[in-house]
Amino acid sequence: MTATTLLTFLRVPSRPGGAPAPARQAVLLAGLLLAAALAGCGDKPAAQASAAAAAAKAAAPPADPNLVAAPKALADRLEVQRVVRRPVSEPLSVVGRIDFDEQSVARIGASVTGRITDLAGALGQTVRAGQVLAQLHSTELGGAQLAYLKSNAQQDLATKAVERARLLLAADVIGSAELQRRENELQVAVVERRAAADQLRVMGMKPDAIEQTIRTGSITSTSSVVSTVNGVIVERKVNKGQVVQPADSLFVVADLSRVWVIAQVPESEIGRVRPGQAVTVEVTSQPEPLRGRVAWVADTVNPETRTVTVRTEVDNANRTLKPAMLANVSIEPAAVERLVVPAAAVIRENNLDHVFVRTADGRFRLTRVTLADETGGLRIVESGLKGGEEIVAEGGFHLNNERKRAELEGS
Hints:
Blueprint (H helix, E strand, L loop, with lengths): L2 H7 L15 H17 L3 H15 L7 E2 L3 H4 L3 E4 L1 E5 L3 E9 L4 E4 L5 E6 L6 E2 L4 E6 L1 H32 L5 H27 L4 H10 L5 E5 L4 E6 L6 E2 L6 E4 L3 E9 L11 E5 L7 E8 L9 E9 L10 E6 L4 E7 L4 E3 L2 E7 L5 E5 L1 E6 L2 E6 L6 E5 L1 H15 L1
Helix pairs in contact: 1-2, 2-3, 5-6
């Protein structure tokens, strides 16, 4: 068959006006290419077949590079799952810091105004409750003891005066009005003695030391500064010879066997945090993460940072956690229903996340998706899937290799 004969055979109907029908344009193009090939190569059968194949390939629509059919050997190894919603706990990661347990911190000062004469407490020293940290000399304490001795003597004198008045009243020497006057004086003396004793206790004197003052009649101007808790001296703000006031904080003692982890959670995320939720604390100096639970969530928002304070308590028996250390805090909120895919189903292609979705004809399409970080072997779907699709959960890597191979062979 000659090229002229072939062109005559491939003549297509025309629309009114002489233009070929669009439905036959592709066929006409293939025929022209084939005619050109026959004209150049004669009527050789091999040349005819090659030209026909080239024409058919040119007329065929291009293949979808993201669509792949799994060979039977590979299809038997693929695991297909339906995309559904599942309860997922999305970890909330924020920056935190190690802090003292404020319930185990004592700021210790002097009970009276005086001058420091001796220092026994050193920074970093472990102390017990009742242990002397410093001694001071106080004239104020001596004056308070003198006032107590005077009030005690006045009470004794008023007591004896009442006893004599009762005897005289019985002998009809004085009237009852005199006895009442002396009893009133006794009551005043008792109150003044009690007030003087209370003042000594406020100044740090113990009851046995107060009683000794009465027995011996001696006055001491030395006062002790003692620790009120067991712990470690983390601050010392005094030196020997310094004059101190009762309002001054001289030592800070803290129990470091348990510390707080303070985290600042953005106000947009605070609705996911509740007391009792599990917390993981990571500190760069610790090889293993620490476990704890949310102990307290603040009721107010910091207006400058727009964050809410969340507190976690963790054990620190070996004292490896130091206050002011930075930490990474991961809070595990309550689970919520989210659309998820298995982490093994995700294919990284061109630095983007994809999954293979089964189509109606049984093939698989590489589909781009946007996913959140992995949580318990699952990836939360943010976009790309609506739910209900069937995806390749296992074997997606091999299926992607098959897709690439088919794409190369087809190019």
